[in-house]
From TrEMBL:
It is found in: Mitochondrion. Pfam families: Aminotran_3. Homotetramer. Belongs to the class-III pyridoxal-phosphate-dependent aminotransferase family. GO terms for molecular function: (R)-3-amino-2-methylpropionate-pyruvate transaminase activity; alanine-glyoxylate transaminase activity; beta-alanine:pyruvate transaminase activity; pyridoxal phosphate binding. The gene is agxt2. GO terms for cellular component: mitochondrion. It catalyses: N(omega)-methyl-L-arginine + glyoxylate = 5-(3-methylguanidino)-2-oxopentanoate + glycine; (R)-3-amino-2-methylpropanoate + pyruvate = 2-methyl-3-oxopropanoate + L-alanine; N(omega),N(omega)-dimethyl-L-arginine + 2-oxobutanoate = 5-(3,3-dimethylguanidino)-2-oxopentanoate + (2S)-2-aminobutanoate; N(omega),N(omega)-dimethyl-L-arginine + oxaloacetate = 5-(3,3-dimethylguanidino)-2-oxopentanoate + L-aspartate. Gene3D superfamilies: Aspartate Aminotransferase, domain 1 (3.90.1150.10), Type I PLP-dependent aspartate aminotransferase-like (Major domain) (3.40.640.10). CDD domains: OAT_like. The keyword Glycosyltransferase does not apply. InterPro entries: Aminotrans_3 (IPR005814), Aminotrans_3_PPA_site (IPR049704), PyrdxlP-dep_Trfase (IPR015424), PyrdxlP-dep_Trfase_major (IPR015421), PyrdxlP-dep_Trfase_small (IPR015422). This is Alanine--glyoxylate aminotransferase 2, mitochondrial. The lineage of its organism: Eukaryota, Metazoa, Chordata, Craniata, Vertebrata. The keyword Transferase applies.
Length: 457
């Protein structure tokens, strides 16, 4: 039973002493006061249990306070909390060797950081040093971080400020086969297809050609006709689980490399088995990036990030000193190492595939039942449900309607997320230990909340 600080006092302190951001984003009209977590469950200070389908934004990978991971952290805490990597210590080396074994050659050199923004900052720097070029391209609607440099990669106004940031970053049209101008039913790789007719000829995706033309036009603006890098998530996370035509990344990687650039996969949300069929999201696109960045799920909620690249690219980075006090911290390495073991031992990736496919299949039935669900998409447990005013217009469902459904789902005991360029997409990215029964519980709750909303509308 919770005996800590009162809710009123927390809100007072939040208003007075916490960053203005925490005030702006209370997320719910009636805020949730979380006190404890175990696997897919969270408890608030009143003892109410919530099914967590957002996992602190796709971060809790194997489960809140997973006993195996907690035990590994405790063991390391008793041995050594900290030393910087100017000394040689086992936790870092054990982890780097283990993480490298999850990548094909030549992706074998690892840098450890403390967050996704830091990992992407480092990736930007290395790409520029290696190629000698400056311009970097990302997709519209993407989120790659909030540091001054990565704010330039991030291409969603909600996370940007009118200050100089991320010079040399350009965005290209996001090849979104639901909301974008082209694409539809057979363009993307997902267990459920869109309701839009794509009009593509069998075996040839015309939408892909058109989105690639857009990328070509963006490339014309790069200086001096050369580029440092292209950053892309395998499935856009904050953007609302947006998926691209099946061959888009293959064709994009080819173009970028022709212009002297390297290709970077941001796996901060899609890595560690979340997409189900594959351990890394890029594998689902049949591409091999030159660099992969990761965070969130890597530590099951413990602050950590990483960049993996090739020895050749890493060599270009050896002229100066790269120092990071906490990157590769022994406790973080022990936790992350245990996360990799737990994913294997618990069959987490397979569970992502099975439960995620079940969820999407059933959500597609709700899409067919309700006029306000425009699209259900994703892979494994990286799922987006895009809400619309009506299917014909595909106009985003307004914020007040989104909030009403969102709050109702929470009041019935399930936490989900919101995202998308217009805040129009519900995001489902739970701890990957959720069961089919949990999925069915959410489906019943979601159905009821949509029904409640439609009755009132
Ligand atoms: N990349 C992606 C795809 C993300 O979703 C995020 C965080 N939402 C980041 C990078 C930045 O990670 P962090 O918040 O750890 O800096």
């Amino acid at each position: 039973q919770y005996k800590g600080m009162s809710k009123e006092r927390m809100m007072e302190i939040r208003k007075r002493n916490c960053s203005p951001m925490t005030m702006k984003v209370t997320y719910y009209k009636k805020p949730v006061f979380i006190h404890q977590g175990y696997m897919q469950w969270l408890w608030d200070v009143d003892g109410t249990r919530y099914l967590d389908l957002f996992a602190g934004v796709a971060t809790v990978s194997v489960g809140h306070c997973h006993p195996k991971v907690t035990a590994a952290a405790k063991q390391q805490l008793d041995k050594l909390w900290h030393t910087t990597n100017i000394y040689v210590y086992p936790a870092l080396h054990e982890y780097c060797e283990k993480l490298a074994s999850y990548f094909p050659d030549p992706l074998k050199v690892i840098y450890l950081t403390n967050s996704g923004s830091e990992a992407n900052d480092l990736a930007m720097l290395m790409a520029r040093l290696y190629t000698g070029n400056f311009d970097i391209i990302t997709f519209r609607g993407s989120y790659h971080g909030g540091s001054p440099q990565t704010m330039g990669l991030t291409s969603n106004a909600a996370y940007k400020y009118p200050v100089a940031n991320g010079l040399g970053c350009t965005n290209t049209m996001c090849p979104d086969v639901f909301r974008g101008p082209w694409g539809g039913s057979h363009c993307r790789d997902s267990p459920v297809q869109t309701i839009r007719d794509c009009g593509c000829a069998p075996g040839h995706c015309m939408a892909n050609d058109r989105y690639i033309e857009q990328l070509k036009e963006t490339l014309v603006t790069s200086v001096p006709n050369r580029i440092a890098a292209f950053f892309g998530e395998p499935i856009q996370g904050v953007g609302g689980a947006v998926q691209y035509p099946k061959n888009f990344l293959q064709d994009a990687y080819k173009l970028i490399r022709e212009r002297g650039g390297i290709c970077i996969a941001d796996e901060v949300q899609t890595g560690f088995g979340r997409t189900g069929n594959h351990f890394w999201g890029f594998e689902g696109h049949d591409v091999l990036p030159d660099m992969v960045t990761m965070a969130k799920g890597i530590g099951n909620g413990f602050p950590m990030g990483a960049v993996v690249t090739t020895p050749e690219i890493a060599a270009s980075f050896s002229k100066g000193v790269h120092f990071n006090t906490f990157g590769g911290n022994p406790v973080a390495c022990a936790v992350a190492s245990s996360v990799l073991d737990t994913i294997r031992e618990d069959g987490t990736q397979r569970n992502s595939l099975e439960v995620g496919t079940h969820l999407m299949t059933e959500l597609a039935k709700l899409r067919d039942k309700y006029e306000i669900i425009g699209d259900v998409r994703g892979k494994g447990l990286q799922i987006g449900v895009e809400m619309v005013k009506d299917k014909a217009s595909r106009e985003p469902l307004p914020a007040d309607a989104m909030n009403e459904i969102f709050e109702d789902v929470k009041d019935m005991g399930v936490l989900i997320g919101k995202g998308g360029l217009y805040g129009q997409t519900f995001r489902i990215k739970p701890p990957m230990c959720i069961t089919r029964d949990d999925a069915d519980f959410f489906l019943a709750v979601f159905d009821k909340s949509l029904h409640n909303y439609m009755e009132k509308r």
